[in-house]
Design goal:
0% strand, mainly alpha, elongated
Length: 241
């Protein structure tokens, strides 16, 4: 028998005998006997008169809600919010209703943002353009009688429309000078990126920001505010050859 196997068996026998002798020394704890309580129970009773006295106080009327006369308006709102609660309860179990209310909430949120910001630039630039007495097409921008149209808007006090024509005339000027390639689907930012001359680009950027603020921001403008704006556009156009 190999030595390591002999040593292993010897150690196993020693530890086994030691464990058995230790287990024999353990004492088994005797079971504890539980005695039943045979003492007399003294039943305590509440004082009914004291309870009745407390129950008459408003502070202790927990089960009785304070009531008041409801007006027709109050009843309407109770009915209204109960119906709203039923709708949302049904939407939780109906996928179609769930997505309908999600879409409705998103639409309401967008409408609130639209009214707070007060301009249509976040959606599209066509909403204000329809107020012009002509379509803004490629052939129109080169055919509009700008001096006549601008003067008419000034006389009518429609200064925002006059600013719109000032900006269109500037785009026509840049297009005629082949500085930009005017297309109806392009944005003002596209035109700005097409300008290579730094000084022209910087001044046109200022005019564009000014125009966006007045036109899309629905900024109120009168004759006194319009005149320096007109001069800034005329000064820029005079530099374009």
């Amino acid at each position: 028998m190999p030595k390591f196997l002999f040593k292993f068996l010897l150690l196993f026998i020693i530890f086994s005998s030691a464990g058995n002798s230790y287990a024999q020394k353990l004492k088994i704890q005797p079971k504890t006997e539980i005695k039943l309580d045979s003492s007399t129970i003294n039943v305590q009773k509440f004082n009914k008169d004291a309870l009745d006295a407390y129950s008459e106080q408003n502070e202790f009327k927990y089960d009785a809600a304070l009531t008041r006369d409801l007006s027709l308006w109050d009843r309407f709102w109770i009915w209204f919010w109960s119906k709203v609660g039923q709708l949302f309860t049904g939407a939780a179990s109906n996928p179609i209703s769930k997505y309908f209310f999600i879409g409705l909430g998103a639409a309401i949120l967008l409408y609130i943002i639209y009214k707070v910001i007060g301009n249509e630039n976040i959606f599209a630039k066509k909403s204000k353009e329809i107020t012009l007495p002509y379509d803004i097409l490629n052939e129109n921008i080169h055919e509009i009688d700008y001096e006549k149209e601008i003067q008419q808007f000034i006389e009518q006090g429609k200064f925002r429309l006059a600013v719109r024509l000032l900006y269109l005339r500037t785009l026509k000027k840049l297009s005629d000078a082949e500085i930009i390639n005017w297309q109806p689907e392009k944005t003002n930012y596209n035109y700005l990126m097409e300008i290579s001359k730094p000084d022209v680009k910087q001044e046109f950027s200022l005019l564009t920001h000014q125009f966006d603020y007045i036109w899309y921001g629905d900024f109120p403008i009168d004759a006194n505010k319009f005149e320096p704006i007109k001069q800034s556009f005329n000064h820029f156009n005079a530099q374009i050859k």
